[in-house]
Design brief:
The complex is a heterodimer of chains A (about 270) and B (about 190). With about 270 residues, chain A is an alpha/beta fold. Chain A has helices spanning about 5-20, 25-40, 45-55, 55-65, 80-90, 110-120, 135-145, 150-160, 185, 220-230; strands at about 100-105, 125-135, 145-150, 170-175, 180, 190-195, 205-210, 235-240, 255-260, 265. Chain B has a 7-stranded parallel beta sheet with strand order 3-4-2-1-7-8-9, with helices on both faces. In chain B, strands 5-6 form a two-stranded antiparallel ribbon. Classes of the chains: A alpha/beta (about 270), B alpha/beta (about 190). Chain A: This is Protein-glutamate O-methyltransferase CheR.
């Protein structure tokens, strides 16, 4: 049994020793992740988990990776991608140059999905995709562009449902149970660690995607991160969130207008 | 069944279901008295491509249906909340929801266990939890956690369930206080306060 006070102690350690600030993460989910890790790694008590995190910098890496959620997929919510294809990319295409930020991109399945959309709209050449996450190890996977082959059937179905017309398998080479995506798709991806809690804006973008990341933050942190996105968007830029996330009740809601049914907003001020 | 005022007390009603649970809900929801003095949370297994049609379907059966939960929605009495497809539904200390799209539990997202365990931490003895028809082990661990926290647990009578496995599994793991057929559930819920 892990008490709430234990969690507080651990979060204080993480900040004091390593500078990772998880204090504004949604408590229910964070606690569940910590309890899960404690049983997964068979710590006999919470105190021993805490000691390991405090003293073993290699374990810290695993700890951060495991308590943050790194579940993602290609073309998740196909209708969202359809809206990007039909309503957003044609507008962005009128610009001489397109900058896109995938904030909290995890292992990069969404970044590659976007790369495919851009290629099919003949816009990839003049685009740059910034892929950031706080976990260095997931970014290594983005760099490689290798995903499990057994996922491809589902990804292919989602791709078709998003309005894709090609044979999805032409985008990757299958080998040893892995699908390696074409180099052409990764050439325009710029990879960097970035912590939404503590790092500031680093560029101006035309489109920011941050899907199913804010759900792990409390209201205050959500507001701070949304302000960071607002500061990082050019005028008439787009912000895309997860299907159950919203700008409603946020401090920046009046500066944005929701495009349609999907969770895409256009900056109007 | 004799119920004194203490045992009629309810701060949160949880309902978990899988295959075969919809027909129970279609029977149950229209018979519940309007403006229940506590919130109701529904966690149902379903395909994630189902869009929002399930909440529309449910709202034809009860005016309390608020639709699928969005991140950070605040829990209020009299509302019936539906866990969204493809997310786990968690409850914060301040009685708001948070969502989580981490790994499936019991091959399910939303998982009944995840919501039940999370609710047990916040609402403890104020919980009444119902586990309906299904062909999955999900829910049993959640019911056990709720019992430990002092809440009350009910399983659908397997005899009445299209898929008896789920309530039966909970019963054989000593996670259940009462076993009710759908009509008894209606009576029980309508007498909670």
């Amino acid at each position: 049994m892990i008490e709430d006070e234990d969690i507080e102690l651990l979060l204080t350690d993480l900040f004091d020793i390593y500078g990772y600030d998880f204090t504004s993460y949604s408590r229910a989910s964070l606690k569940r992740r910590i309890v899960r890790l404690c049983s997964l790694d068979k710590f006999p008590s919470f105190a021993e988990l805490r000691y390991k995190v405090r003293t073993d910098v290699h374990y810290l890496k695993r700890f951060v990776e495991e308590i943050t959620v790194n579940v993602t997929e290609m073309f998740r919510d196909p209708l969202f991608y359809k809206a990007l294809r039909e309503d957003v990319l044609p507008i962005l295409g009128t610009k001489p140059f397109i900058r896109i930020w995938h904030a909290g991109c995890s292992t990069g399945e969404e970044v590659y999905s976007m790369s495919i959309l851009l290629k099919e709209a003949d816009l990839l050449k003049k685009s740059l995709l910034y892929a950031t996450d706080l976990n260095p190890s997931v970014l290594e996977k983005v760099r490689k562009g290798i995903f499990p082959l057994n996922q491809m059937k589902q990804y292919s179905e989602s791709y078709i449902a998003s309005g894709g017309h090609r044979d999805f398998s032409t985008y990757y080479t299958a080998n040893y149970g892995q699908a390696k995506f074409d180099k052409e798709l990764s050439e325009k991806i710029i990879i960097s660690t970035h912590n939404l809690v503590s790092d500031s804006s680093f560029n101006e973008f035309d489109l920011i995607l941050c899907r199913n990341v804010l759900i792990y933050f409390d209201k205050d942190l959500q507001d701070r991160v949304l302000k960071l996105f607002d500061d990082s968007l050019g005028s008439l830029g787009y912000l895309a969130l997860g299907t159950k996330e919203t700008l409603k009740f946020s401090a920046i809601q009046n500066k944005f207008k929701q495009l349609n049914r999907e969770k895409i907003w256009k900056k109007i001020v | 069944m004799e119920e004194n005022s203490v045992s009629q007390h309810c701060e949160l009603l949880l309902i978990g279901g899988s295959a075969g649970s919809l027909e129970v809900l279609f029977k149950l929801l229209p018979q519940l008295r309007p403006a229940l003095p506590f919130p109701v949370i529904l966690v149902l297994h379903r395909r994630n491509s189902a869009e929002s049609s399930l909440s529309e379907l449910l709202s034809t059966k009860s005016t309390a249906v608020t639709g699928e939960v969005e991140d950070k929605d605040v829990i209020a009495p009299g509302h019936l909340y539906l866990a969204p497809a493809d997310y786990h539904l968690l409850i914060e200390k301040d009685h708001s929801f948070s969502l989580d799209d981490s790994e499936k539990i019991n091959f399910s997202r939303p998982s009944i266990d995840v919501t039940f365990e999370s609710a047990a931490e916040v609402y403890g003895p104020g919980i009444v939890a119902l586990l309906l028809s299904g062909a999955n082990e999900d829910g049993t661990h959640g019911l056990l956690t709720i019992k430990e926290a002092g809440g009350r647990t009910i399983a659908q009578d397997p005899e009445s369930a299209q898929m008896p496995f789920m309530p039966h599994y909970a019963m054989t793991h000593h996670a259940v206080d009462h076993v009710f057929a759908p009509q008894q559930m209606v009576h029980f819920i309508n007498n909670l306060a």
